[in-house]
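Priority: medium. Attachment 1 of 2:
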């Protein structure tokens, strides 16, 4: 999941600080999520899903072909 949320953030042009603000957490905490040192909560995953227009399942790491089949 860490690589996916980093890729989405970079592609969107947002900073780690911008995304952390949306999640109501500090930038350092968000940085740890992108490094895979910390896992986001279900609420945070839902917020990221909404922010980036991606599915919850894709953010969790399911392959695209499985997510689109649902």
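Attachment 2 of 2:
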């Amino acid at each position: 999941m860490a690589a996916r949320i980093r890729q989405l953030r970079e592609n969107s042009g947002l900073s780690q600080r911008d995304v952390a603000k949306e999640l109501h957490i500090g930038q350092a905490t968000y940085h740890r999520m992108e490094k895979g040192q910390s896992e986001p909560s279900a609420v945070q995953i839902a917020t990221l899903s909404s922010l980036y227009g991606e599915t919850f399942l894709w953010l969790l790491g399911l392959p695209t072909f499985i997510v689109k089949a649902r």
